[in-house]
Design goal:
11% strand, TIM Barrel, 10 strands, 43% helix, alpha/beta
Length: 419
Amino acid sequence: MDRQDIATLRELAGKVRDIAGLPVQQENIRLWQSVNDLQMIRPVLHLRDCPLYLLQTGGELVLTIEDPFLRSLELDLKLRLYEWEHLRLDRVIEPVIHCHCIVDDSEYGLHAEDEIPFDTFLQGKGYNRAVHYEPQIRNDQDLEKIKAPVVVYHEEETLQRYHLMQEIFAGILEVRLQGRHHFQACLWDDLLKWMGISEGLLQFALEPDFMHRAAEKYLAQLIDRARQYERLGILSSNNGFINVGNNGIGYTTQLPPPPQGGIGARLCDIWGENADQILTAVSPEMSEEFAFAHEQKWAALFGLYSYGCCERLDHKIAGLRRNFKNLRKISLSPFARLEAGMEQIGSDYVVCFKPNSNYLAGPNCAWERLRAELLEALRLARKYRCNVEIDMKTLISLNGEPERLWAWCDMASELVSSY
């Protein structure tokens, strides 16, 4: 290892450790716990899903290390420092750095044409393009293309990396193993990409029995894959500063704390989630029949459950109540009727409100609209006694001005502080 690279990492880690020791970290944990425990002190603020290319300014996120693995650690540390400086909100910085378990996961044997590597996505190369999905599943015979996943844990290689990180960060940060803590469980988002969007949506009306068989086939593989991670001992808890699916952070006193070693959690001790954004335009009855009725088997694996992302759900709250007994978080996206949704949710669940990130784009930032939607969410939280997290997410453009996002964070923090 290059001595200068190690010195760089240790210097960055020292800055993270100092921030992690501030009293505000425990205060923010308590704020998140209060919301997720349905005993809100005040609404909490979170920012997620912001590609790196939108944040680049000056030299704060410029990387200097060439080695790919050490470079990934440098990015982790620099991003945390950047977020604390500019995008703080109710962020929690912990005195920990994670060593990710090295895993081979065959997934399901089918891939949509648009799928791109996640690191490419982070650089902005997966945005702003039209996509055609070529149907791969048309009949029962094609359902056999959905294969049983095979998960292989490379423990020796993982532990070599873990011990290397312990050496690098000795006396500064705790190195903690991290396995799978989130499963992409979007039943129809995936199936309809494999069936073709228009073709698949028509099948709900034309071939409903086939669509139910497709759901059961794929759901069985989703469950088997999750169980494999559990049996291999490479599940991590998301009861921490970790996104719960497509919603906010997972701190709660109503699930067990994370295992000491970082891995070895059980499915029943963590948050589960799913979303079906592609069904946003179908009726509540159709969502309940084709999605919720199947997805409750997935939900039953977990201790607490989170539903939704960017789909409209304000008119489907009753169906969510009926089908998910451990439901705790419900997404209300920019496409939802906010008051209708919050009135139905009340204090029974967490409202995961998603501001409209489009207001941050364009030649002129729509500050009046951004402020108005935050004030409206806070007004409705008081009116209906809701437990609210405000999750700014899915940013596509800041018109080359990352300072816009910094200013939104400052504005949101100021408004929420007077709640």
